[in-house]
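My main concern about presentation is that the manuscript never shows what a single data entry looks like. The format is easy to grasp once an entry is in front of the reader. For illustration, here is how one protein appears when written out as sequence plus structure tokens:
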Amino acid sequence: MPVNYQNRAETVNALHALQEPSFKGGYSGRIILFCIAWLSTFNKAVVNGDDINHMQGHYGNELLLPHFSSDWIPNRVVDLYGRNLLAHMFDLVFFPAHILFGADFFFVFKIFNATLFATFLCIVHRYLYLRISAATPNQSSMLRSLFVAFLVLVILPWTNEVRAVCYEIPAFITFVVLAELLDCIFGLAKTGCTKAPSPWLLVLGYIAAFSLEGYTAIMLTALLFASGLTWQWDQVRKHQVAVIVASLVGFCVLAIFITIVFSQRIHIGAGTSLLVEVLQFLRHRQNFPEDALIFSLPLVTGLAGAGTLWFLRHRLANLTPATVSFTIITCATLIVVGLISLQADQNYFSFTSYPWGGMLLIAMFSAVPAVTIPLADFQQDRLISNSIRIFLMIIALSWMAIFVMNTTQQNYERSCLVLNAYRAVGHYTGQVFDTGLSLDQIPMQERPLPTAASPAWFIRGYEAFFLKYYGVDSHIIFK
């Protein structure tokens, strides 16, 4: 049969015309995202208390494998290997720059982290933007790209290297794995065919499963629930996605087993928890702990959402994949984080206290396409509704722009005070240096310098740090 090259050329041109605005919009959004992220990270980044261990070197694993032996965090391969790799990458940049140009550690640290972190945020933006563009290919892209860019900046503020390596990167990887698998599962359930999952998903799933106990439990809960919703559909059970899901469930179970059996953190932190008190209340009708209500409400909400989705499982074909993924991931997050908060007697739903809302990151990533796709697709052909939609997106953008930049002066002043303390290490003759930071009021994981009240290992860590990067054997204590 002869090929109609004219029609074929017209089709190709139409596809290029469709893709070009989306590409330009995404590219421009990422440029703005990179610039803001780089500048804000450079302004804020200093070595914090959680960074000091790996900055000394000789920290963590040399292989991306868990420990089957007693250790503080034996199942966290991303934490142990990632921070080890990050420290060596920094040394690879710093020491040649120091020899060639006399570069100061303080500024190299800022440039290094600003570049890596801004690049990571652009990768996050690209993935989210492509997911949204695939669902709304005919819509305007510039405003949508900026909207996603500022959402990424709000979700992922710079805190320190530990948060980036141990929380944010694993959370994004876990989200990618869950989003791709859930798309595949419910695409099969809806249409009977979908693209084959990439072999990389299994590798990324292994990394996600051995990243953080909370993320492991969230992924395990989400996969088991999604499997239960679609178990009766032969097209899902006979597809290779079932093999990947089963393998990842095995990885998650193994990671949790290693945590329970070998983690010293679990054994040292064991004690009476709110969960035990709630169980005692249910058995003996004792006084119900008031603080447990804070964590029980999200837990009950997650269980109720999961129950509602189970009841409506035969109507899932009517929902968009982004909505289904968001609902499953959010329910799993509420259930797992609620249980962890009850067990640890600590509010892991908090965005401000340690670990800075890290447990909610996967659900927050899934919320971006779930919110943006309906917003971008809402009655585009009507003037009034479309104008209102654009106006609301601009209002949201204006708030997010101020939100991500409203601490610029405070971060600058803090950086200057830390720089003054670093410069004092080489020539200060006293024993206690007043930084002006009120260090004892800062939680130790965020504290940029040791004080007299700091543990001995923390003080020794900074002494080794100054010897390594400044060549000064200093025993100064800061306040």
Summary: The first strand starts at residue 432 and ends at 433.
